[in-house]
Amino acid sequence: MALLAALLLSLSGGGLKFERQLLDTISYTSTGNVYGAEDLIIVALDDITFDLISEELDGLTWPFPRAVHAQLLKNLVAAGVKQVFFDVVFDIPSRFGEEDDLALAELMPQLPIYLAAEQSGQAITPPLEILTSSGGTAVNAALPVDMDGIIRWTPGARILPRSFGEGVSYLLGKPLPVISASSLPAAAEMLTQSPSTAPGLLRYLGPAGTIRRISYYELYSTELARPYFKELRGKTILIGSTPSVSITPEQAADTFLSPLGLMPGVEIHANHALALRSKKLPEPLQGWPIPALLLIWSVIQSWGSRQWPDPLKGFAFISVSLLVWIALVVVALQFAIIVPILLPVTVCFFLYIASLAVHYLTERDERLITRAQLFHYLPAKVAEYVLKNPTRLAMGGDRSEATLLFADVAGFTTLSEECPPEDVLSLLQEHLQAMTEVIFQNQGTLDKYLGDGIMAFWGAPEPQENHADLALKAAVDMLTKVEQQNVERRRRGAPELVLRIGLHSGEAIVGNIGSDLFIDYTAIGDTVNTAARLEGVNKVFDTRLIVSDDCLERLKSPRQFRTYPLGRVAVKGKSDAVGISTVVDPKEEEKYRVLQSALKSFDSGNLESGKRDLIELLTKDPSFVPARFHLDQIAKSGALLGDENGRTYWQLDAK
Questions:
Q1: C-alpha span between 190 and 80 (Å, rounded)
Q2: How many other β-carbons are positioned within 10 Å of the β-carbon of residue 230?
Q3: Cβ(615)–Cβ(597) under 8 Å?
Q4: pLDDT tens for residues 373-396?
Q5: How far is the C-alpha of 455 from the C-alpha of 470, rounded, in Å?
Q6: Is the distance from CB of 265 to CB of 141 less than 8 angstroms?
Q7: How many other CB atoms are there within 10 angstroms of residue 463's CB atom?
Q8: How far is Cα 271 from Cα 2, in angstroms, rounded to an integer?
Q9: CA 450 to chain centre
Q10: Can you state the angle between helices 311-334 and 289-307, rounded to 10 degrees?
């Protein structure tokens, strides 16, 4: 059963993807670079280029006139470069007329120039005939994408299995599938004059930005280009987009996944060219050695699990076994051979788990049965605590000093109405899973899911002196995680999520609360209600995180967080005001310092000084909602409202 489980897991969709991730990790951590990039330079269509050339062309945006590219080529010819690859598809006539195309075509005979062709399925869109007939050479700018969306193989390579069926065939010694190749030669093959006679794993020199870049604009401008002539002489030049977060989605589209993260397409071509120089790229081992090797390995592992059933000795055996296999993988890569990783590892793992299960079942007792039942209706952390303190199972609760967190997805109702229920469910499950992991990583107790919302708390069932620090750290991590997931959602065309969080600290009743028919381990009290209200206050200030002063006052390490005050508010249904703050990005700190100064002026009764600060803020940034909020409240009330201590606050009408 253990061997079957290992086989099913390693050949599942997730297993096949994980196999590739393991290969990437080992490949880039166990071996050094096998080549350099001294004679290859990327000419980057970067932010500076788009901005400056747009200025020179009176606001014209991409695509640039062909005459602009012609001017760049003139400078490259003057510098004595070896050859040029344009990772730009010139497949339609210039919008500036035929003379513009001729300006670029006239440069084609000056040196070897390779022009990207666009491939869609089996069809290829070549460059303009006027360019190829003048001396430009069409090359395939598409590189094969693996099953997980990553470009890691060269065209024509035999790749790791992509399905359960291919995996079974591979383990039986049958040939691996060949990844598609175009009828046109790949750009890298032409640049290196090395037709891919030994295709395989595309080894990258490093993450994006590793290969030398020079801004397109610097080489377009003759005056700026001259200092580079000596460096450019005899070099291979690749011209393409190197997008960043500040440019348009159309330009950012020329970025692809590599094993080392997002990378511009032009830099992937550069890495492909460098990889071809190594002559022999790593390829998967195949044929009869595969079933023979795995059969021998399985026999050894089965023998070891029976020989050492004790958990500690079994763990020692599996640890040594895994080290031996990883060493074999590393050595094989040195000889350009890729051997399976996940299946041998899972064989070890499942055999060890099976051995533990037998050991566990033979020594189980009533406590284990109680434990299994307990974990069905209590969070894991709570269950562990109750196991040590059985009296906590009784109905009722304890008064605890705690920090409450409420998180909610903005606009989720609208999203639910616009998207199919299956897509909404998948998106929600993905979100809740990630947020729960963050809460648990920061030692929090998940109370419950509230539809698309989450309630969690710190400080119970076990007291935590730093409960406020843990809660605030969790909130910041949750927002960071959502942004990271949004990057992936944008990539696959899924809706992005906006998370709002409220934090408040104080006393709460925490325990088993309910009836004889149903109980729920939860927290209740005014602290809980206030935290829930503060989550909604984010809508008023256009923030993502609201933290009460009561929470900030309980921080043990306040300096690790960049918090700035937003003011004091009395949420709907409450007359007592609470001070609120938010965590600020360093780029936004200056605005919040001015806001803080205005709030101090209000507290000291200096209305006009505070208003001047807020008006100045809005003059510089009309979208700064916190400043607009306070000015609107002043306009509505005509005066400052003060609490019993004379501090300014505002009464909110909405939740």
A1: 19
A2: 9
A3: no
A4: 445 434 566 667 666 665 555 556
A5: 15
A6: yes
A7: 11
A8: 41
A9: 26
A10: 160
Positive or negative: CA dihedral 518, 522, 523, 528 = negative
- Hunting for tokens 């009533």 — which residue is that? 366
How far are the Cα atoms of 17, 135, 594 from residue 599, in angstroms, in the given order?
53, 69, 9
CB hemisphere CA count around 61 (13 angstroms): 5
The type of residue at 440 is F
pLDDT over 50 (residue 37): yes
Q: How far is CA 453 from CA 450, 498, 536, in A?
A: 4, 12, 12
**For 57-115, how does the pLDDT look when each residue is reduced to its tens digit (9 = 90+)?**
877 778 889 999 999 999 999 999 999 999 998 989 988 888 999 999 999 999 999 99
- Whether the pLDDT of residue 487 is over 50: the answer is yes
Rounded Cα gap, residues 126 and 350, in angstroms: 52
Integer Rg of the chain from CA: 31
Quickly list H helices, 363-514.
366-374, 380-388, 412-418, 421-441, 467-492
Asked if residues 580 and 534 have their Cβ atoms less than 8 Å apart, the reply is: yes
Candidates 248, 238, 231; CA nearest to 268 is 238
Q: What is the pLDDT of residue 226?
A: 92
pLDDT at 184 over 50: yes
> In one letter, which amino acid is 201?
L
Q: Which residues on adjacent β-strands are paired with residue 567?
A: 580
Q: What is the dihedral of CA 217, 220, 222, 226, to 10 degrees?
A: 70
Q: Strand runs (DSSP E) across 290-390, as ranges?
A: 337-338
Spell 174-188 as b/e; 16+ CB within 10 A means b.
eebbebebbebbbbb
Most confident among 142-146, 260-264, 408-412, 470-474 (mean pLDDT): 470-474
3-state class (DSSP) for residue 158 = strand
Q: In whole angstroms, what is the distance from residue 352 CA to residue 228 CA?
A: 61
Interatomic CA distance for residues 591 and 541, integer angstroms: 14
pLDDT of residue 86: 93
> What pLDDT band is residue 254 in, cutting at 50, 70 and 90?
confident
Handedness of CA 141, 147, 153, 156 (dihedral sign): negative
Both tokens of 639, joined, read: 């005066």
Nearest to 333 by CA among 12, 649, 24: 24
The phi-psi region of residue 459 (left if phi > 0; otherwise alpha if psi is between -120 and 50; otherwise beta) is left
Beta-carbon contacts of residue 8 (< 8 Å; ≥ 6 apart): none
- Torsions phi, psi for 496 (to 5 deg): -85, 155
pLDDT at 365 over 60: no
Give every CB contact of residue 519 below 8 A, 6+ residues apart in sequence.
395, 512, 513
